[in-house]
Structures are given as C-alpha cells and as structure tokens.
Specification:
The radius of gyration is 39 Å and the shape is elongated. By secondary structure, it is an alpha+beta fold. The protein contains 16 helices and 23 strands. The strands form three sheets. Strands 1, 2, 3, 4, 5, 6, 7, 8 and 9 form a nine-stranded mixed sheet that branches. Strand 4 and strand 5 form a beta hairpin. It has four domains: about 210 residues, Heat Shock Protein 90 (2-Layer Sandwich), CATH 3.30.565.10; about 110 residues, no CATH class; about 110 residues, no CATH class; about 190 residues, no CATH class.
C-alpha cells in the first residue's frame, strides 16, 4: 500500500488519545534505540531529546523558560540512520521491516496526529560510504524527499524534528523537563531493566540536561527480579521492581508490549496488605510488576495505547483466549508471594484497625465477621471511619445476599436430598441467620448510642457563648414538618423522652393542627410533637364494636438554658402544651385513617416539656403545682382541669435517663455508656 495515496485515510483511522500527546515523541526515542541496536553500539549510543519552546508564548510570562509553550521536540541519535532499507520501510505503511522488534509500521502516523510536520536529516553509511538524506513528512504533502548525497568529514547521525504540537495534546501533556524525562524513562524502562547495556539518553531543555540513567539509578531501590509463569500455554515474564519512595506513588502492574509500557494499573487494593510504603533493610520502597509476553505483543493495538484483550472471556473460548482478569489474578498471586515477608506487618495492622473499629464504633458487624472473606478485610490502617464503614457494609451486603440465596435452597430441598445432609445444612444456615439477627440488633443499639452523643453535643454551650436552637434538637427527635405517614419508623427517636412513645398510631412534627388528620382542628397552631396512640386493652371485654381507648401526647421543646418563661401561651411551655391538647380534644380526635374516636374529650393526655430548669421555668412548674423529681432535675404532676399528666424534663435528666435505660445494651456491645 502506497503511503502517498492512503495517508489521509490512514490518519483518520489512527487513534491517539489526547492524554497520550507525548507518545509519538517517546516512540521516536524507541526508534533511535532500535537504530543503535542495528549498529551493535547500544552501549556507546547517544540519544538527545531536546524540548523546543516558543519564547513568544508563555503560560506565565516572566517565570522562566520552563513556562514557555512547547512547540516541538528534536530527537538526535548516532544510530544506523535512514539507509535505503530503512527509507523504503518508512515509505511503506504497515511495514514488517522491524516486525521482530514488535514494530507495527505506523509509528510515523502518530507523529502527524500530534504535530504539524516532521523533518529529518540523516547521515548514514552505505557500502562503506557516507550519505546524507533530508526529507519532510506532513499530512498535507506526505513525504517530500531529496535524493541522498555523498558527504565527507561528518559523523553518522539522525536528527528528527517534530514541530507544531497540537494545542489539545499540549494541554494534557507533561511540560517540565524532569517530568518529561521521568515519563520517558517509564516508557523505556524495559531497556534499562533487561539490557546489560543501555544508551545514554538525555533530555535537554535550554541549558538544562537530564540523564535518564541518573534518574534510573536514583529511582531503583534494588535490583529487579524476573519470574516466569505459564498461562494457557503462553509464557508470561514478571519483573518485580522496588522503587525508592517518592518515585512511584502507587503499587502498580505495568503491561508491556514490544519493550514498551502500554497499560498501567494499580494493584494496591487487590493484594492484601499492599498499601502505604513497604520496608526492607535498605529502607522504604513502592512496588511495581512489569509484565511481558508474546501474547501481549500479539494483542497490542497498533497505536500501542491499549490491548485487544477482553476483561473477561466467555466459556466457549475461555480455553483459547486469555482475559485481562486472568492476567491480573496471576500477577496478584505472584506479587503476594514475592512480597510475603513485607506484607505480614501491614496485614496485621490492617486487621487490628478493623477489629478496633468494630469493637468501638460498629459492633453490628461483630457477629457476622466470620462470614466475610478475611483477605478482603485487610485494610490500610490509615483508612477513614467513613471509608471503613462503607467497606464493611459492602461486605455485609454480599454476605447477606449469599445467606438469602442459601435460604431459598434450604427451604426448597430437592426430593433426592439426603436427610442427614439436609439437617446439617439447615442447622448451619440457621446459625448464620442468627448471627445476622444479632447484627441487626447491634446496629439498632449503636444507632441509639450515636443519637445520645448528638443530643449531648447539641445541649452544650457553643463557641459564641450561646446555645443551640430548639429546632436542632427537635430535628434529632423527629424530622420537622412531617408526620408518621411521611417518616420512616427508624427516623423517629422519641425513645429519648419515653420508650412508650416509640409506639404510636399517628405522629406529627411541627405541623399545623388543621393539617393533622387526627385532630379535626382548623387552627394554624403548631405543637412541636403530637402523638396519638390507639391501644388494645387486653382486659377489656365488650360486645360493642367501637375503637379502644386512645391517648394523646404533646411534646414541647425549648432552647437550652432559655430563661424567659412567663404567663401566657406564647411564653409558658407548660401552658402551651396543655393548650395544644385542648385544641385537639375540641376538634374531635380521629385515627390516622380519619375515623372519629369516641369520647374525644375524655382521651387521656400526656404533656412533655423538654427544657432546662432555669429560674423562670421552675416558677412556672410551681404555679402548676408540679412535684420535683427525686434528683431535682425535673417536675411531674397531674392537671385535673386539663385531664393531663405533665412532665417537665431538663436536658441533663433527659440524657442521664436515656443512658441509664440503655446502659445494659451498651455494656453488652462494649460501647461506652458514660
């Protein structure tokens, strides 16, 4: 196929991601390495990658040459050059001239994806004589070449200039000489790791010169270790490398083809204990595994930006094709073996982190830890509580799902099932199910511990010497402007006040009385909390088909340390609660379904006032003839005129009481109760 006649179409069909803008440059350096190999002078080889900047354009004017826009690169080497055979190969798309080196014959197309033009000056030796060949290569004009001319008193040398870097590729590429040199070393690392001799490659930017050999020596923690594994008849070679800390931030797997890195993938979360930095006698290091194989060479895409390998393989072809997941599994297994001595302490610390978190903050997972994969629970000790909770919850869900599937099989046994075997499986299933029930109970108790901690925090004095508004505490007890038809059961924390309030037929929070189906009232007054209980009385015997007795509870919440209580419904919290109760009774109370409850006027009423016992509040309690509690942290009594029980609870008493009621549960789970 002629390069000239098919160039435009081949360029359209050549893919180069915007994040790979320097790949054509790096591939040109690899071409230079191969040109040196042809002369058998790799050790004496010299390759210079020079960054060409535009002094007229700067990212940040006045901040130095490195801030000037990169317009191109020049690659110079003393390799074999563009002799007749290499020039013919250059002018032939998909050439197999260097197929033995893994070349696909389209590298030159990549130049024109990222650059406007490529210009070449090459002095080469042919039949014992020196010649110079100059040519240019662009998408508009193809290859514009001159006949080679004989030269004297010159050295073999090839200079490739890539000019006019595309703005979109420039935006995503590295821009400092050091970062470019490090990326180039990563791309060509295989030559340094595997070859006894490597060329002297230098990245030049103005007067600054950076040697890749120096970077390599600085990066390597110790000598690389090679290992071969077989997978479906193909040999894969793994090279284990320890990098000094700071060079490679992540523990990674690198899939290579034709001696170049093609795909990088982090494996830190796939190998138990492989997190943070590892240490040996020489100090701390990060780990990398470079993978090479004929299989990877055969399945790399022509642009060398990815592989034509599926993540997983269908069963029909699973014995012929190899998937990425299978390669990854082999790498993870061999990595675990290679690093086993270093991973032990990390795994121990990770397990201790999980055990401590479960014991102190998430006891719901304690009873089902044995049903989770232990290797999956080895975490980085630096993991946050939020991330760890998410991880445990994910494993909990998987274990619960597995239990549910097992339950379906257990409850629908096959006719041919062995009775003894079935009874054993059933016993094992029930034991697991019991563990999950214990986990649910532990979760509920832990939730209570958290709510109590929040309540204590809300009633403390703030940094500005003030106290939290009552709406924060209200929201903690029950979401505002909602009723029980809109709020999940576990979103209400009425047990903070009285355990009996957790069971109700209807509950409304901060809603006008007129909007509550239980009241029949048309006013716009808004009690903080209003609950209606329709209760079955087990000793009541009656042939009459009437609803059982009901009770109405009103809860009024005030800001901590508020000291402005005085006579009047708007200022006295006790009077306010009793007035709400009266309005409900006068409107003829109904069930949540809208049915009238008989004897609405006689419905027992319970009024709770949550506030601190400031002097003005204590005065109002005495006026209503309420009795102090034994600890003097609250008042209680019965108002005959209103037909209501009244309890005024201070925030200190509220917290102390709820802690005492739940202490046994907290102690059982190992949670602090004070």
């Amino acid at each position: 196929m002629s390069l000239h006649t098919n160039l435009a179409g081949r360029l359209r069909n050549t893919n180069l991601p915007k994040t790979h803008g320097l790949l054509p440059v790096f591939e040109a350096v690899v071409n230079s390495i191969q040109a040196l190999e042809e002369t058998d002078g790799l050790a004496e080889g010299q390759i210079t990658l020079e960054i060409i900047r535009n002094p007229q354009q700067q990212m940040h004017p006045g901040k130095g040459a490195e801030k000037e826009i990169i317009k191109g690169f020049t690659i110079t080497d003393n390799g074999v050059g563009f002799n007749a055979a290499n020039m013919e190969s250059f002018e032939t798309l998909d050439s197999d001239h260097k197929v033995g080196k893994g070349c696909r014959g389209i590298g030159r197309l990549m130049w024109l994806k990222a650059f406007d033009i490529a210009e070449v000056e090459s002095v080469f030796c042919q039949e014992g004589k020196l010649y110079q060949r100059n040519f240019s290569f662009s998408s508009r004009r193809g290859v514009q070449t001159e006949s080679p001319v004989a030269v004297h008193d010159q050295e073999v040398r090839t200079v490739l200039k890539l000019d006019g870097l595309d703005k979109e590729y420039y935006a995503s590429c590295r821009k400092t000489p050091l970062s470019i040199a490090e990326a180039l070393l990563e791309h060509c690392l295989w030559y340094y790791v595997r070859s006894p001799a490597t060329p002297n490659i230098v990245v030049k930017d103005g007067t600054k010169n950076i040697s890749l050999s120096n970077i390599y020596d600085r990066c390597m923690h110790s000598a690389a270790t090679a290992q071969q594994v077989s997978l479906k008849g193909y040999v894969f070679e793994l090279t284990h490398i320890k990098f000094r800390v700071g060079v490679n931030k992540n523990h990674s797997m690198f899939l290579c083809a034709a001696n170049r890195v093609v795909k990088e993938e982090s494996i830190g979360k796939k190998v138990p204990g492989l997190f943070g930095t590892l240490s040996d006698d020489a100090g701390e290091f990060t780990y990398a595994c470079y993978v090479t194989s004929d299989y990877l060479d055969e399945h790399v895409r022509s642009e060398r930006t990815a592989f034509n390998i599926a993540e997983t393989i269908e069963d029909l072809i699973s014995d012929q094709e190899i998937s990425l997941s299978e390669i990854r599994e082999v790498v993870v297994e061999k990595t675990r073996e290679y690093l086993s001595d270093y991973l032990h302490e990390n795994m121990k610390a990770g397990k201790e982190r999980v055990n401590t978190f479960v014991a102190q903050k998430a006891p719901r997972y304690r009873s089902i830890m044995s049903h989770m994969d232990e290797r999956e629970l080895v975490v980085d000790p630096r993991i946050s509580d939020k991330e760890l909770e998410s991880l445990l919850h994910r494993h909990y869900y998987e274990a619960e799902k597995s239990l549910m599937e097992e339950g379906h099989e257990i409850m629908n046994p096959a006719l041919e099932s062995n009775l003894e075997d079935y009874q054993s499986r059933l016993s094992d299933y029930l034991r697991k199910a019991q563990d999950f029930k214990q986990s649910d109970l532990a979760n509920y108790v832990t939730h209570r511990r958290t709510i109590i901690d929040l309540l204590e925090k809300y009633i403390e004095r703030l940094d500005d010497d003030k106290y939290a508004r009552e709406d924060l505490i209200h929201q903690l007890i029950m979401p505002m402007r909602m009723d029980s038809t809109q709020t999940p059961f576990d979103a209400c924390n009425l047990w903070l006040i009285d355990e009996r309030l957790a069971f109700h037929d209807y509950l409304a929070s901060d809603k006008p009385l007129s909007s509550m189906p239980v009241t029949g009232d048309i006013s716009g007054k808004e009690p903080d909390l209003c609950a209606l209980n329709v209760c079955n009385n087990p000793i009541l015997v009656s042939d009459k088909k009437a609803l059982p007795l009901a009770s109405i509870t009103v809860v009024e919440i005030k800001r901590p340390m508020r000291n402005d209580a005085r006579e009047g419904e708007d200022k006295d919290p006790i009077e306010q609660a009793l007035s709400y109760l009266d309005r409900i009774r006068e409107g003829q109370a109904k069930t949540a379904g809208g049915r009238l409850i008989p004897n609405s006027r006689d419905i027992p009423g319970f009024c709770y006032v949550i506030c601190d016992l400031t002097p003005s509040v204590v005065q109002r309690c005495r006026i209503f003839d309420l009795t102090p509690t034994h600890d003097h942290m609250g008042y209680f009594g019965y108002s005959k005129s209103y037909g209501a029980f009244i309890e005024v609870i201070s925030y200190n008493r509220l917290v102390q009481s709820v802690k005492e009621r739940n202490k046994a549960f907290f102690d059982k789970l190992g949670l602090p109760s004070t």
